[in-house]
Amino acid sequence: xxxxxVYLAGGCFWGVQKFFDQFEGVTGTTVGYxxxxxxxxxxxxxxxxxxxxxxxxxxxxxxxxxxxKLLEYYFMVIDPLCVNRQGEDSGxxxxxxxxxxxxxxxxxxxAVFREQEAKAGAKLAxxxxxxxxxxxxxxxxxxxxxxxxxxxxxxxxxxxxxxQ
Length: 164
Description:
Layout: E1 4-10, H1 13-21, E2 26-34, H2 43-47, E3 53-60, H3 67-76, E4 85-86, E5 89-90, E6 96-100, H4 106-120, E7 127-130, E8 134-136, H5 144-147
Parallel strand pairs: 6-7
Antiparallel strand pairs: 1-3, 1-6, 2-3, 2-8, 4-5
Helix pairs in contact: 3-4
């Protein structure tokens, strides 16, 4: 299986991970901290404004789910016009971003961004750039909402049960 990877920052990473875990073709997800200064931060440092974004590494099989489809889903659960905020969470760590791993992904991503900007009637506040670094979050954050079903999430629970 030839998988691809994209990194998606969409506010609190707990819900973003749970959301993407439901889709056929997504073969793995990991929550972590991306595109901040070099060096693995702790959650406490990220919360204090280290400059990293709470991000989910999404590994997918492009023969089963396209990057375009993943991004269409992504835009269903974020407010693409908010800067450094999603839901009740605010701060630089909650910024939105699509961080690609291969230049070949860029045309597909840009096409989705153009479509979303036309839909919103405004320039998106979603970062678009290559991933420059990614550090796995602490183990207790991985699959957090599966371990803590009543945990807070800015994504409505109904979004965790979409029918593909």
